[in-house]
Design a protein that fits this description.
Elements lengths: L2 H18 L10 E9 L7 H15 L4 E4 L14 E8 L1 H15 L18 E6 L19 E7 L4 H11 L10
Antiparallel strand pairs: 1-3, 1-5, 2-3, 4-5
Helix pairs in contact: 1-4
């Protein structure tokens, strides 16, 4: 079993129970899934660039991504119906915990001028963050990267509020910005 999953079941659940005072242990928030998505802006015009992005997303997630396609044509954006516009991966279970452990312990310290992620969630217990450059992941070979590509990572939890989600992710190890003391 993953060490992060052990940490969740042994320490984090007890800490959340003490902090929020849940009457039922099934009400304690947990992780549901992680969704990693990449928009393929100008890369969508080139088949080789699409394949490079898919390969990079496969390397860092451990499974093959799903290509997302446009549903409408928009002439102003030179977008045609059915054109590939992105790729996404949904991680659950062991792969989710493995990715979280690598992201928290290895990838976040490699981000340039990193001071922590903002503490604002979506209001329903999920947290999303954006990364500007995929080269911070150690799985990606820097010699083969042709263009920098950003990605969005969404942590979906069973928490009902942002405070519960924030506390869950903080105790699991996600580095948030330190609150300014006035």
């Amino acid at each position: 079993m993953s060490s992060l999953k052990n940490k969740y079941s042994e320490k984090v659940k007890k800490s959340l129970q003490d902090k929020f005072g849940y009457p039922n242990p099934m009400m304690i928030p947990g992780m549901t899934k992680i969704v990693i998505s990449m928009g393929l802006a100008e890369a969508s015009k080139d088949k080789n660039a699409i394949q490079d992005c898919v390969n990079e997303l496969t390397m860092l997630s451990g499974q093959k991504p799903v290509l997302t396609r446009s549903t409408k044509s928009v002439a102003g954006f030179k977008l045609r119906e059915g054109q590939i516009i992105g790729a996404k991966v949904t991680l659950r279970g062991k792969r989710m915990y493995d990715f979280m452990e690598r992201f928290f312990c290895i990838v976040c310290p490699r981000i340039r001028d990193f001071r922590g992620f903002p503490t604002k969630g979506d209001g329903r217990g999920c947290y999303s963050l954006g990364i500007d450059d995929q080269q911070i992941f150690p799985e990606i070979n820097l010699d083969k990267v042709k263009r920098t590509q950003g990605m969005n990572i969404t942590f979906v939890t069973t928490a009902k509020t942002d405070a519960e989600c924030y506390q869950l992710l903080l105790e699991l190890g996600l580095p948030f910005k330190k609150e300014a003391v006035a």
